[in-house]
Specification:
By secondary structure, this protein is α+β, with helices and mostly antiparallel strands. It has helices at 2-23, 41-49, 51-57, 59-63, 107-139, and strands spanning 28-37, 81-90, 93-103. The protein has a 3-stranded antiparallel beta sheet, with helices on one face. It is elongated.
Length: 141
């Protein structure tokens, strides 16, 4: 019986520690990844704004090729997250920065952020690299 109590107490301590870790996650989160592309901003912008091109460089298209995406734009929508691609000319190149800002208000959102942050960093790296490859290939044609 003491073993059962010890296991129960240990499990409770682990749950308390995990809960504290989750609660310590920030209420506002930010991910920012950049890459320099050997092309002018206009060429990159055309690729980013083309819904047909999205699947070619999107990291999510590669993860689930059978998925079909629908782009929806809400005017004046105050959502819980925001993602943007910013471009800054650097000589003959362009620095492209993919930015994610989001809110983690609930315990569930904070718990999900622990798992999502690393994935989002990796996905943004994959997407930016694919965008660079596509744009630089088109720039040399």
């Amino acid at each position: 019986m003491n073993n059962v109590k010890s296991i129960g107490a240990g499990a409770l301590i682990v749950l308390l520690i995990l809960s504290v870790i989750v609660l310590m996650q920030p209420a506002k989160v930010h991910v920012e990844k950049s890459i320099v592309i050997q092309a002018k901003p206009e060429l990159i912008k055309a690729e980013i704004e083309s819904f047909q091109s999205f699947n070619a460089w999107s990291p999510w298209s590669k993860a689930s090729p059978e998925t079909r995406f629908t782009i929806v734009v809400f005017e004046g929508f105050d959502g819980t997250f925001y993602s943007d691609l910013k471009m800054e000319p650097e000589g003959d190149s362009t620095k492209v920065t993919w930015i994610y800002d989001g809110n983690n208000h609930s315990f569930k959102e904070k718990a999900m952020w622990i798992m999502r942050k690393g994935d989002l960093n990796d996905q943004y790296d994959v997407g930016l690299k694919a965008l660079k490859d596509i744009v630089e290939r088109k720039a040399t044609q």
